[in-house]
Amino acid sequence: MEEKGVADSLATVAKQAVELAKRLGADQAEAGVSYDEGLSVTVRMGELESVERQRDRGLAITVYRNAQKGSASTTDFDASSVEEIVRKALSIGSFTTADEYAGLADAALMAVDPPNLDLYFPWDLDVERATELALRAENAARGLDARITNSEGATVSTGVGSRVYANSHGFVAGYPTSTHSTSCSVVAKSNGSLERDYWYTVNRRPEDLDSPESVGEEAARRALARLNARQISTRVVPVIFPADLAKGLFGHLVAAIRGTAQYRRASFLVGAAGKQVFPSFVDITEDPLIPRALASAPFDGEGVATKRRELVTGGVLQGYVLSSYSARRLGVQTTGNAGGVHNLLVRPTAGPLDELIKSCNEGFVVGELLGQGVNIVTGDYSRGAAGFWIERGEIVHPVNEVTIAGTLNELFENIRAIGSDVDVRGTVRCGSVLVDGLTLAGQ
User: What are the backbone angles phi and psi of residue 399, rounded to the nearest 5°?
Assistant: First the structure.
């Protein structure tokens, strides 16, 4: 992908679509144009299993006329197709109900001269090299222990893309991104016990990926650790969510404080801004401007400049996650979160996972969460789990077939420590989380 040429041509398409919409009678218009290409290679049991090449592009236009909104999209960028979808969007809008809250974000909030966050590192990777890297990961996993008897495969992926957003305020900007990853999933077998697990590395820059060998070996270690699991009886104990699973807890927070959940009053945290949601040692910052981070963005999906802000301070929720539409519904200003949150940083309060385990006389370390038993409206939390039993500060055996039950309110309030083993692979950056007194439903 030739970065400059692609960006210029996407910007031209976006601007033309917006100008055309205005000429055809829209009061306001916005267009998003994207181009993505990538390669993904999977091997399994030492053999090349699949090669996928992807090349996608799209234009989505949204128009507003008399407070009515219409949207349409196409993958064809020639002038006649663009005109057709602009007319289609206007036609669709004419059938929708007028909505006083609809429209572009405030022109004063647009990102003037957005910063370069260093998100684009293309990887000149061919099928042969990708296959070699994937085989290195899988061979390392299969070679670690004779009990690794099967593989679900190892995959190496690389992708680049460019997105441009334009609107009738005269805003037009875009930026290229890249994402590269290696993953491996294997099966361990011993005494009739069969377990699978996986591991992965993902980064903007190919040089910053973990080695294929380390990914494969970690996948194997995780599968082996789960062999010969036992069941336990129902009890109330401390539960530790390792960093890769703890991120999901804060994902539930984000779902509950989204603007749509708030104005629909469909959240267990309705109206919670300014209230104590976590213990006083919990601080969460949103920082969209971290160079090279996976969830960084110089502006949101509406062109609004993103900026660092405190989301939770001293355990108190400071605000919501809002687009311009949900902000208007709530009578406040957008938080620059059209399209989601950017890099939630959960401040550590303790040492890494090992230290959290040592601090428990007895407890449970979650290895895997199963099912979708989280209700954001009521806050009820009930998820199947497998993991490891702790006695006197040490893991003594794997556990399966338990259910972690409670409410998200209790779960948030009962956090006792947040580890320093921060997982940076994704939108939420946090360490392992120790939660006191959760019900573990077993036999």
Answer: -130, 140
Distance set, CA 241 to CA 207, 253, 415, 430 (Å): 29, 15, 10, 11
Taking only the tens place, the pLDDT of each residue in 184-193 is: 999 999 988 9
- Ordered structural domains, the chain, with CATH: 3-225 (3.30.2290.10), 235-441 (no CATH)
* Three-state DSSP string of 65-76: ECCEEEEEEECC
Number of H helices, E strands in the chain: 9, 17
Beta bridge partners of 407: 380
CA 14 to chain centre: 27
Q: Which residues does 281 contact at the CB level (< 8 Å), separation at least 6?
A: 314, 315, 349, 418
Return the residue matching tokens 């959940």: 261
CA distance 155 to 159: 13
**Spatial separation of the C-alpha atoms in residues 45 and 200, rounded to whole Å:** 18
End-to-end CA distance of the chain: 56
How does pLDDT run across 8-61, given as a tens digit for each residue? 899 999 999 999 999 999 999 999 999 999 999 999 999 999 999 999 999 999
What is the C-alpha R_g of the chain?
Answer: 24
Residue 330 has φ and ψ, to the nearest 5°, of: -95, 0
User: Coil, helix or strand for 300?
Assistant: coil
Q: Does the global pTM surpass 0.70? A: yes
